[in-house]
Amino acid sequence: MTLFDNHNHSQFSFDGKRTSVEASAMAAARHGLGGLAFTDHCDFFIPPAKKVSGEIVPEWFDVIHQQAEIERVQANVPVKILKGIEIGMHEDCREEIRKVLADNRFDQVIASVHYLDDVDPYHGEYYDGKDWKEAYGRYLETIFREMIWLGDFDIMGHYDYIVRYAPYPQNSIRYKDFADLFDTMFTYLIQEGKALEINTKSYQGYRGRVVLPDNEVLLRYRELGGEILSLGSDSHEPERVGADFDRFAALLKSLGFRWSAHYEERRMIQLPL
Asked: Is the pLDDT score of 27 beyond 90?
């Protein structure tokens, strides 16, 4: 398998205690992947609730030490390891985001949103007082606004993150419900040569909830001219590296896609699905 897993976390992520660069790289080798990228979390936003409680755990990482560890491990494993970062976009932290990107060199940059309305949807409070359409729509609007501002990224991360933890019966973020938003986002990605992430973690199931992909989202992306896709497991443990890649590669091919992209020194490389 020549596929690259472009979204992985290591011990350098605040929530990466169950894995390491070495363990996940070895897992990628066992799975026969062509390579993997470590895109550790870089969220500079500190929620007000954490400030009040004093329980502040930095959600950014030491780039120098992470990249040194990648270089050390690379010498001992047969798969290519890429140096990445997952930027947690937030309007209150734009100066810090610009600085970390200016001060360091990466193979690839994922642009994601983890916080809106001052909370991470993972914890549930975000959904309070909102119906499903407002909750999902505001997330898409926030991704679009912040990636337009950022510009300096390669991959738009997990547009479906908001559905993973939602309390609603609507277990898919569907094209027909947000057609204008998706068209606007996809047009930007296509014009700027950015990749759309297929994040397989979104579909692994949480607390008995199974999230379903909407093929119409991907078909519309392709109809508008979108061809650049990035596969990412969003792994936080070695067992999840490359998870469900066979399934999603088959799905993407059935929808007419031919390539999976990854980035080396910020240059796109496409390989057959």
From this structure: yes
The amino acid at residue 263 is Y
- Dihedral angle, C-alpha 193, 9, 138, 170, nearest 10 °: 110
CB atoms under 10 Å from CB of 30, counted, come to 12
* Cα distance between the two ends of the chain: 9
Burial class (CB in 10 A: 0-12, 13-18, 19+), 234: buried
- Bridge partners (DSSP) of residue 81 are 36
Rounded Cα–Cα distance for residues 140 and 134 (Å): 10
**The tokens of 152 are what?**
């300096």
pLDDT tens-digit readout, 63-112: 999 999 999 999 999 999 999 999 999 999 999 999 999 999 999 999 99
- In this prediction the pTM is 0.96
Structure tokens at 98: 């610009």
What gap in Å lies between CA 80 and CA 50, rounded to an integer?
Answer: 37
Tell me the domains of the chain and their CATH numbers. 4-272 (3.20.20.140)
